[in-house]
Amino acid sequence: MQTLNRAFNPSNEERLAKETKAEELTFRGLRSEEGRQGGQELWFAVKAVPGSQRSPSTPANDDRAPSLSLVERSLANAGFECFMPTYRLVVRHHRNRKLIEKRFPIFTGYVFVNLPKRRFVEVEAVEGVGKLLKFSRTYGEEPEPFSFPQETIDRLRFTEWFEDQQFLSRKAYEVRQDEVDRELKAMKNAKSKGSRKIRSAHYSELAGSLSRSMTSPSSRSLVMETMAQLLKLSGTA
């Protein structure tokens, strides 16, 4: 709830910075506890095949978890734990103009993989994975896979989580605003249609409420013909 309040009331920057830092320390503390319970973590980076990080877009009002990309699904199916930092945006579909949610990688072309048992050959064989990132300690030496500090991964996880909270608050506002705009547009269209019917009623001598209730042209025609006949009969009575 504090995070949502910050999104709508961005004031007192120093206080918010302290709160964010406290949340980050708490988050990292929980992550380190998970690491002690779940075993060793050793994170490496792999180069992702172009297009393998693309995630399917979903309707903005869909509350289900975001769909995973090809490389994330492939790594999970092969038994690897991966971490692809992402961010989400709400955009309007170019054809139907509806709001949709899109998910993008923060590091385009790269995914982190937890390899405590150093299964380097196996991970490079996974669909969507290009190769492990390697480096040479000294010139002329054989390059070896580079492992990232656990602190780096934990801070990236917190950054992704924090930004996702901001996104969720913006998304809730944008979805609600879109609903309001659609309701206003529908009311405006209904009002304009009602006005046209009232003008037709004036021309056809039908009352406005009656004209609005008669949506079928054949029904309106029948009522007008009957009304004309009744008026004619009344005049000759």
From TrEMBL:
<feature type="region of interest" description="Disordered">
    <location>
        <begin position="1"/>
        <end position="20"/>
    </location>
</feature>
<dbReference type="Pfam" id="PF02357">
    <property type="entry name" value="NusG"/>
</dbReference>
<dbReference type="InterPro" id="IPR036735">
    <property type="entry name" value="NGN_dom_sf"/>
</dbReference>
<protein>
    <recommendedName>
        <fullName>NusG-like N-terminal domain-containing protein</fullName>
    </recommendedName>
</protein>
<keyword id="KW-0804">Transcription</keyword>
<feature type="compositionally biased region" description="Polar residues">
    <location>
        <begin position="1"/>
        <end position="11"/>
    </location>
</feature>
<dbReference type="InterPro" id="IPR006645">
    <property type="entry name" value="NGN-like_dom"/>
</dbReference>
<dbReference type="GO" id="GO:0006354">
    <property type="term" value="P:DNA-templated transcription elongation"/>
</dbReference>
<feature type="domain" description="NusG-like N-terminal">
    <location>
        <begin position="71"/>
        <end position="157"/>
    </location>
</feature>
